[in-house]
Each structure stands twice: as structure tokens, then as C-alpha cells.
Amino acid sequence: MTEWFLDALLVSALVATAVAALWSRDLFRAVIVFIAFGLLMAVAWVRLQAPDIALAEAAIGAGLTGVLLLDAVGHFRRGRTGGDGDGDGDGPP
Q1: What's the pLDDT at 92?
Q2: 84 falls within a domain
Q3: Is residue 24 part of a domain?
Q4: pLDDT for res 80
């Protein structure tokens, strides 16, 4: 009975985080929720007795992809500066 309850709780948490990531208007919050979804998915793979897939999901899905998305959000929030960093958009200084 306890295993069924834990599985149901995990499934509802996965659905809730997926919906929250899709409906979030703030990109930073959406990425954080996406990372949480990846970690919950890794737990789901462990529950399904697939530890190799769980490790890959945690490392790639939550770790690497999350860091890349956070970096992309950071670049998006700063705006386009033309690549030289001085903000005038004319290229090299």
C-alpha cells in the first residue's frame, strides 16, 4: 500500500512540475521547475529499477541541460549587445 502511495505521489509531482514549467510566464522559474522535473524523473527511473537511465537523466536532463538553459536565460535577460560587451551593438570595440 505504501509503494502504491509513493508511486501515485511521484506521478502527481511529475505532472504538476510539467504543467508548472509549461505555464510559467517567468523563464527563470520555468527552467528551475524543469530542473526539478528532471530530478523527479530520475527518481521515477530508480523506482522502475533502471539506475543507469536514472543517472543519465540526473546528469544530462537535470544537470547539463539545466545549466545550459539557465545560461541562455541569462543571455536573454541581458539582451543583445552585439558581442563586444559595450552595449552599442556595433561589434568589436
Answers
A1: 56
A2: no
A3: yes
A4: 54
Q: How far apart are the first and last CA of the chain?
A: 67
Q: Does 38 reside within a domain?
A: yes
Give the containing element (helix H, strand E) for 84.
Answer: none
Residue 79 is placed in which grid cell? Answer: 539582451
pLDDT at 2: 85
Domain carrying residue 53:
2-77
Nearest to 75 by CA among 85, 63, 65, 61: 85
Contact 57, 45 (CB under 8 A): yes
**What does the alpha-carbon distance between residue 23 and residue 30 come to, in Å, rounded to a whole number?**
8
What sign does the dihedral 19-22-27-30 (CA atoms) show? positive
Whether 33 contacts 21, CB under 8 Å: yes
- Averages of pLDDT over runs of 10 residues in the chain (93 residues) are 90 96 92 94 95 93 89 84 54 54
How many structural domains are present in the chain? 1
